[in-house]
Design a protein that fits this description.
Distance between the termini: 17 Å
Strand content: under 5%
Largest sheet: none
Helix content: 40-55%
Number of helices: 3
Length: about 90
């Protein structure tokens, strides 16, 4: 990642702005979801809801070219993290 501090550019660890695992854990406790049982959710529903959630994430407001590029750059890593945590298979 190019925006890391000097000397840590090759560090394989990257830190997210939020703890997605904790959000998932809190949601499973709040809605009393038994993770050992299969879910009745359809994958298409999950994908559409997840995409709409990601599209609502706004860091940089504006519709000019510079603002849109800044928005894309600001949310790319977070979108990757959300999709990897909600994947049907574990992503390493």
């Amino acid at each position: 990642m190019a925006n890391r501090e000097a000397g840590r550019e090759s560090d394989p660890m990257s830190y997210a702005p939020g703890n997605i695992q904790r959000v998932i854990m809190n949601a499973t406790q709040q809605f009393r979801i038994n993770r050992s049982q299969p879910s009745d959710l359809h994958p298409k529903d999950i994908i559409t809801k997840l995409n709409s959630l990601i599209n609502k994430l706004v860091v940089v407001q504006g519709f000019n070219a510079l603002s849109m590029e800044a928005q894309e750059n600001a949310t790319t890593a977070y979108r990757i993290l959300i999709r990897s945590m909600s994947a049907s298979k574990r992503v390493f």
